[in-house]
Amino acid sequence: MPNIEVLTLSVNSILSLSPLAGCLCLSELYLRKNMIPSLSELSHLRPLTRLRVLWLAENPCCGTDPTRYRLTVLRCLPRLQKLDNQVVTEDEIALALMEGEEVTTPPGSLQNQLSTNGLQDVETENDPLNYNMEETNKIREELGMKPLPRDKFSSLSSPSTRESKPSMKKTHTLDAVLLLLKDLDEEELRVVHTATQNRLQMYTLDSDMLTESQHTQKTAEIQH
């Protein structure tokens, strides 16, 4: 049913959300009191870019930590406007993007089987172009957006570029974020803006604490 917009399936002993991945017009989904075992099932809802209301409470996947649960759901589905009958705020989304746990594809799912054959592809791992594509498209997937084709990354350096893995990852993550900004609408850009401000405040706070600690240490040395 690709055109269905509102679906109420509460109290139905549902175990998997994979059959909903094709309901691209879905805007409201009610799944209270089912048997969904893990938040990894939310990966099947990522393609549903119109989904704004989700009621998932009273499922085993909710666990015992309501804060962790809510932040993880919102990190996976940042477009939601209401979760479990509670309005989602921009600050909450920004916090979820920083502190929510990453939701992975459930083991044994078709999507997971297609993404890997169980062997390590050394050439792909060492290719900065493929590395950048994976970083960008991973973030796009989390936002419910289509992956970018390889030709969008033609300006990147060749695989022979020598760069340490940590610095490579930081550079490519930044490239991925900058590419994503072009595709975000005003509402999504505001979420990114809020998340960036919160992150910068954390760095400022850490810097102030370090400066204060150094000053205290110097004062103590002078007194001695």
UniProtKB/TrEMBL annotation:
Chain segments carrying region Disordered: 143-170
Biased composition, class Basic and acidic residues, residue ranges: 143-153
Entry keywords, A to Z: Leucine-rich repeat, Repeat
Entry-linked InterPro entries: HIND, Leu-rich_rpt, LRR_dom_sf
Entry superkingdom: Eukaryota
One Gene Ontology term from the biological process aspect of the record: cytoskeleton organization
GO cellular component, one term: U4/U6 x U5 tri-snRNP complex
Protein name: Cilia and flagella associated protein 410
Organism (species): Amphilophus citrinellus (Midas cichlid)
